[in-house]
Design brief:
Blueprint (H helix, E strand, L loop, with lengths): L3 H7 L16 E2 H12 L13 H9 L10 E2 L1 H13 L5 H13 L6 H29 L5 H39 L1
Antiparallel strand pairs: 1-2
């Protein structure tokens, strides 16, 4: 197995789109794709994996994961939401992402999306630090008869942790759904 520190560095976990990297002008879809490809290309698993495509963006818009686009141009707020969708789609279903972001989309004019997104970036940065520490600690405790079996135990451990985090996130989405249901019936 390769050096775990090298593997963690190859993941580019710190790679996030910051509000400062988004132009102060609205962008066309091709410009949005180019921005995301440039920013997240190193984070993909292989060269064939696309960060963002026209189809994905159109599906996000049709699925109401984004508030309406005006004149085929995407605002800074749209790009921040697309960045959040990019982060969420690795774990949550499109339906769960829609539920999670629905309140933001419905109240986009009343929310300080820049501040909200900066809070997310702070949390993400802290999560990366703790994740790396946790992975190193966990992997140092795993011992098996062969390197191959150790490698498989590493994978199983990470997948198990991932599943626990995903299930917890899904339960939190379910709470949003439950709250919305109560609000709509009142």
């Amino acid at each position: 197995m390769g050096n775990l520190i090298d593997i963690l560095n190859e993941l580019h976990l710190e790679n996030q789109l910051t509000p400062d990297e988004i132009p102060n002008i609205d962008l066309y879809m091709d410009q949005v794709i180019q921005l995301f490809e440039h920013k997240f290309n190193e984070s993909t698993r292989n060269e064939d994996e696309k960060v963002l495509t026209k189809t994905m963006i159109n599906n996000y818009a049709k699925g109401k994961l984004l508030f309406p686009i005006k004149q085929k141009k995407y605002s800074k707020e749209h790009l921040l939401l697309i960045s959040l969708i990019y982060q969420l789609k690795g774990t949550l279903s499109i339906s769960d992402i829609k539920t999670t972001l629905e309140g933001i989309n419905e109240n986009i004019d009343e929310i300080d999306i820049d501040l909200f997104y900066k809070n997310y970036l702070d949390i993400a940065e802290n999560n990366v630090i703790h994740f790396k520490e946790e992975v190193m600690s966990r992997m140092n405790k795993i011992k098996a008869d062969t390197n191959e079996l150790e490698h498989i135990l590493y994978i199983l451990s990470l997948v198990h942790m991932s599943n626990m985090y995903r299930k917890t996130a899904e339960k939190l989405v379910d709470q949003i759904i439950s709250t919305q249901h109560i609000t709509k019936t009142e």
